[in-house]
Amino acid sequence: MQLDCTQTPDLMIVHVRETRIDAAGAIDFKDGMRDLTSADTRRVMLDLSHVGFIDSSGLGAVVAVRKFLGPDRPLELAGLTPAVEKVFRLTRMDSVFVIHGDVPAGAGSLRDVV
Fold first, then answer.
1. If we measure between CA atoms, which residue out of 9, 16, 8 comes closest to residue 65?
2. How far apart are CA 76 and CA 98, in angstroms?
């Protein structure tokens, strides 16, 4: 699972560089997110703009990351493609997560961390 992130003083944006989060990659996704976020205290925003498909295992992995971050660091989502947005809406996970239309402007110019 290819994940990288950009950071500001108060926000870590994790970019998913895969087109799918499914059963085949769910464990790698959770492990990668844990590795990137465990030593940090910033808000976390997950950029899903490259993800065109998510299944129930992928959705479960996103929920598991939210639980891992805890109540003081809610996982925010951004850049949902129409198919991924539909999954979040149909499962009512859109009421659980803060969902932004796009990644904040200028995120590409923030400090990159891999």
1. 16
2. 5
- Which residues, 6+ apart, have CB-to-CB distance to 95 below 8 Å? none
Three-class secondary structure of residue 72 per DSSP: coil
How sure is the predictor about 110, in pLDDT bands with cuts at 50, 70 and 90? very low
What kind and span of H or E run contains 100?
strand 98-100
Three-state DSSP state, 45 = strand
Instruction: Report the DSSP beta bridge partners of residue 69.
Output: none
Give the predicted TM-score (pTM) of the model: 0.86
By CB atoms closer than 10 A (0-12, 13-18, 19+), residue 110 is middle
Q: What residue type is assigned to position 81 of the chain?
A: T
SS3 for 77-94, per residue?
A: EECCCHHHHHHHHHCCHH
Q: What length is written for the chain?
A: 114
Looking at every residue in the chain, the average pLDDT score rounds to 89
